[in-house]
Each structure stands twice: as C-alpha cells, then as structure tokens.
Amino acid sequence: MELRQLEYFTVVAEELHFGRAAIRLQMTQPPLSQQIIQLERELGVELFKRSKRHVELTNAGKVFLQDVHHILIQLERAKTAALRAHMGMLGRLVLGFVGSATFDILPIIVRAFQEQFPHVDLVLREMPTPMQIEAFHKRDIDIGFVRTPVVDPLLSLLPVHQETCIAVVPKSHPMAERSSLSMGDLYTERFILVEREIWPSWYDDILSKCRDAGFSPHIRQEVKEIQTVIGLVAAGLGISIVPKSTVNLHARDVVYIEIEGTAPRVEMCIAWRTDDNSTLVKQFLETASRTMNVPSKETDILS
Asked: In its keyword annotation, does this UniProt entry include Transcription regulation (predicted)?
C-alpha cells in the first residue's frame, strides 16, 4: 500500500466520480481506476460500488475513509513538525546556568527565546561553571550560562554581560549609611564568599583587590550560592563583595554599597559545544546576541 493510493482513494471518495477525481489529481482516469482496483485487491475488500452512472462508498469504504483521513492528518502534522524542528522552531534544549544568572540576564534571554519559539521545550538545570563543563563533555546540556574564565577546547563562548561588584553589609553595620566605600575600608571585616571551586575567577579577583588595598581578607565563611551569602550577611555574620545584579534579590536587613576605584568585575558568557551544529543552539545564540545587544565582533563566532 502506497501513500499516493490513499490520497487517490480520498479524492475519489470526496468526488464520487472518477472523471472529476482524475481532473483534481491532474491525471487521466484509467490509471486512477487501476490504482483504486490495486488498493482494493491489497485490502481484500470493495471500497466503491460502481455503475456506469453512479459511484458510492461501500460500508467498508466508509470505515476505511475515516481511518485514512486520520492517517493523512497525522502525516501532515508529522511533516510540519519535522520542518519546524529543522528550522529550530521545535525540539528540546537543555540549559545549564549558574544561580547568579537568574538575577538579570537569564530571565531576559529565556523570555525572548520562548516568545519567538514557544514550542521549543527548554529544560533548565542550575549548576556551577565547573559542573557545566563536565555536563558538556557528557552531552547532558546544550547551552550553558557560565562565569569566565573557561578554557576548554570543546567549548565556544559568547560574552553577553559584564558588571562590576559592590559591597553588601548588614543593615546595622556602621558603614550602612554610606553611599560608597573603598576596598581598604574593609580591612577589618569578616568576609563571606562563594567557594573558590564554584567561582574561582571571582574569588581570586576579590582577594587580589584586597591585597592591592594592603590587606588579606579574613574569610569567615565560604558557601556555594550567592543567595546564601546574602542570607549570612543579613544575619550579621560578615560582609561580602557581590555582583551588582545581586541587588535584584531585594533581601531585607542588608545594604548594598558602591565600591570606589577599581572594584572586582565579573563576566557572564554563554557556552556551547563548538562541534554542535544544531539549529536550536544557533537560534538560541542569535536570540541572546540580539537581546543583549552583543557587539558584532563577538557574534562573528556564530557565523
């Protein structure tokens, strides 16, 4: 049984006239009649009652027509789905992300992507940058929101956001009323930092800026998440240096203060496997570049 036979049968069933059906199908009547006869032989049933002046469906033909309609509809849906998947409009994309990405750029980019590609299934998995690199090697994720530096020949990076850091202190802290402070002002403070293995470049930059200011910080506590940092600062256990976007947490009992001079900086990049030619990955990267107004020199790596 061939697909074209089902299409021929449907047209004849709609017209109940072989001549008109042949015209619709842009073919002559004899080969059309032959195809219907061949279909009936394969099925072992008569689909039409024929006379010189009249054609009608048999009971078997009526039942068969209903099922054929369903088949053709499903086939058309399958063709459409395949085309949309090829165009990057359908499918599944797994995103890894560091927790701090949720403070600003992740919601912006994901919302823009889903508005343009609402039928793509986005699966989000929170994990620190080192775990994302492992996940890329295992092919567990397709896209990653990572903190630099990332040096891995498997991966390509698209820088999408840079920001300076600010200090965060308890609301009861003597410096809480100040609009700005210097790194040197923090030399007697107890620091709460995200563990170095979670975010090594940021950790090292904070320590470097402290040394530049003439002191080595007293690190009271190391944690895994910025949210935890803010919670411990709110509890009065110490102060911290955090990305400026952290203010979006709106935590009570803490105050964010600008840092004078050269403050630590952080960068967010989107990572993907260099050998991944997926249309979905390309569409996501293009959406991110457009949404974050990435300079053209950075987007050259997408071409």
From this structure: yes
User: Are the C-beta atoms of 263 and 253 separated by less than 8 Å?
Assistant: no
Amino acid at 89: M
Spacing of C-alpha 268 from chain mean position = 16
Q: Which CATH number fits domain 161-266: 3.40.190.10, 3.40.640.10, 3.40.50.10190, 3.30.565.10?
A: 3.40.190.10
CATH topology of domain 93-154+271-302: D-Maltodextrin-Binding Protein; domain 2 (3.40.190)
258-303 pLDDT per residue, tens:
999 989 999 999 999 999 989 999 999 999 999 998 875 555 556 5
pTM of the model: 0.66
ω into 107 cis (within 30 of 0): no
* Cβ-Cβ contacts under 8 Å for 72 (sequence gap 6 or more): 6, 7, 10
